[in-house]
Design a protein that fits this description.
- The chain has 136 residues and is mainly α.
- It has a single domain (3-101), classed as Winged helix-like DNA-binding domain superfamily/Winged helix DNA-binding domain (Arc Repressor Mutant, subunit A, Orthogonal Bundle).
- The chain has five helices and three strands; from the N terminus they run ααβααββα.
- β2 (66-71) and β3 (80-85) form a beta hairpin.
- α1 (3-24) crosses α5 (87-101) and α3 (39-46) crosses α4.
- The longest helix is centred in the first third of the chain and has 22 residues, at 3-24.
């Protein structure tokens, strides 16, 4: 993959994780906080194409950064797969939010998350002085 492709994928991952982080703290409504978001909601809110969002959600799920569940929703004729951040996903999303702010401020959700702690094998953000690696 080209360097430009990696940069776009990393930016997409930041948008998706950031959006799921907003949902996890209730800033996108009670239903999003309780259930998470499904793929088309992520697509609509980020403006990213579904061909980017759905594979990204699958990769994040496979890496343990999100947990997903099929939900029969009363407004839909078929089940929807909802995605929520896991504790490792919350930590990574918070780390990226902090890096993008250039500060150490945090979005608090009442849980005691440490964004600088790295979950083993999840491929979270860089150690000091290292370049951030894209989610692939």
């Amino acid at each position: 993959m080209s360097e430009m492709g990696r940069m776009r994928r990393t930016e997409a991952a930041h948008q998706v994780l950031g959006l799921l982080r907003l949902a996890s703290v209730g800033l996108l409504g009670a239903e999003a906080q309780e259930l998470g978001l499904y793929g088309l909601q992520v697509t609509g809110r980020t403006g990213l194409p579904s061909g980017v969002v759905h594979p990204m959600l699958k990769r994040l799920d496979g890496r343990g950064l999100t947990a997903s569940a099929w939900v029969n929703h009363p407004e839909s004729s078929h089940p929807r797969r909802y995605y929520r951040l896991t504790p490792a996903g919350v930590a990574l999303a918070q780390q990226w939010i902090n890096e993008s702010r250039g500060s150490h401020g945090q979005v608090h959700d009442g849980a005691d998350h440490q964004p600088d702690q790295q979950a083993e094998g999840a491929g979270e953000g860089p150690a000091a002085g290292q370049e951030r690696q894209p989610v692939q």
